[in-house]
Amino acid sequence: MEGYGVDAAAIAIELKNASNWWRGINDSPIWQDRIFHILAALYGLVSAVALVQLIRIQMRVPEYGWTTQKVFHFLNFLVNGVRSLVFVFRRNVQNLHPEIVQHILLDMPSLTFFTTYALLILFWAEIYYQARAVSTDGLRPTFFTINAVVYTIQIAMWLVLWRKYIPVLVILSKMFFAGVSLFAALGFLLYGGRLFLMLQRFPVESKGRRKKLQEVGYVTTICFSCFLVRCIMMCFCAFDKAADLDVLNHPILNLIYYLLVEILPSSLVLFILRKLPPKRGITQYHPIR
User: Fold this and answer.
1) Chain-centre distance of CA 266, in angstroms?
2) Cβ distance 191 to 124 under 8 Å?
3) DSSP 243
4) What distance lies between CA 128 and its chain's CA centroid?
5) Residue 169: CB partners within 8 Å, gap ≥ 6?
6) Closest CA to 251 of 32, 18, 88, 22
7) Which parts of the chain have pLDDT scores under 50?
8) Which of 23, 93, 168, 276 is the most buried (most CB within 10 A)?
9) 98: preceding bond cis by omega (within 30 degrees)
10) Per-residue pLDDT tens for 23-78?
11) What is the annotated localization of this protein (predicted)?
């Protein structure tokens, strides 16, 4: 019995030391700056990769204009670039008034991130329905309508908060974005899953079948997971101040969160979708329009 008491005491001491370590880093201005600058550097790297890929695609097929593929890489460049700047000037952002300006700078890239990856859902939906000889005329208007509704609701809440700061509305804003993230996760599960199952039914000897199957499977899993994690974290952030991502003294939580829901997924998806269109004159290119 004494042995169990000693073990329990040792565990309690270890947990206390771990808690002190976590609190010490969170409360340290030096560690706060280091972690936010690490995030800024990682976002800057992902942004640069997306820009390089966009330039390479444009050099290959300049005659096709702004295809979905080009828009996807441009939005990745934009989202990650803005995130990088926000984290570079994190202390300045934290001091902005009224407080709603801070929320706009932190949340607007998240909305654009949603639009960026909703483009993949749109593209997969178009492929799926075209393969089944179903009209896709309504898909793009639906895509724009959904995005317009999401942005309109969020901007309306920001405008109300601008006039009068209402804590309950801040919670509703975070829960709204949690719902948007869940919607995106289900979109990837629905159309990524459908496309994956459809590709599985193709003949084994089909050219590129295995590679496309892996590509769709990996991207679906990555994007579904990242939006689901974002949804769960937004729910915690809305009701638990200890999980608040909008404050300076939660740098470790920020590092873990943004790595899991934006930096790592963006990096992996850009790597998986790194293939360039074929050079002109070699084979016909069907752009992602």
Assistant:
1) 7
2) yes
3) G
4) 24
5) 157, 160, 161
6) 32
7) 1, 3-4, 10, 15, 282-289
8) 93
9) yes
10) 777 888 888 899 999 999 999 999 999 999 999 998 888 877 888 889 999 999 99
11) Vacuole membrane
Amino acid identity for residue 203 in this structure = P
Contact 270, 50 (CB under 8 A): yes
Look-up of token digits 């969020």:
154
Helix segments in 96-138, DSSP class H: 99-131
The structure tokens listed for 271 are: 């790597």
| Nearest C-alpha neighbor of 175 from the set 190, 157, 152 | 157
Q: Which residues of 26-38 are buried (b: 16+ CB within 10 A; e: fewer)?
A: beeeeebeebbee
Residue (of 149, 28, 38, 118) closest to 83 by Cα position: 38
Q: How far apart are CA 219 and CA 174, in angstroms?
A: 26
Which segments of 132-207 does DSSP mark as H helices, in order?
139-163, 167-187, 193-200
Instruction: Quickly tell me which residue has 């993230």 as its tokens.
Output: 181
Q: Is 55 helix (H, G, I), strand (E, B) or coil?
A: helix
Tell me what pLDDT residue 282 has: 45
From the list 86, 96, 113, 107, the residue with the least C-alpha distance to 223 is 113
Q: How far apart are CA 192 and CA 87, in angstroms?
A: 32
- Smallest Cα–Cα separation from 120: which of 257, 277, 266, 285? 266
Integer Cα distance of 138 and 161 in angstroms: 35
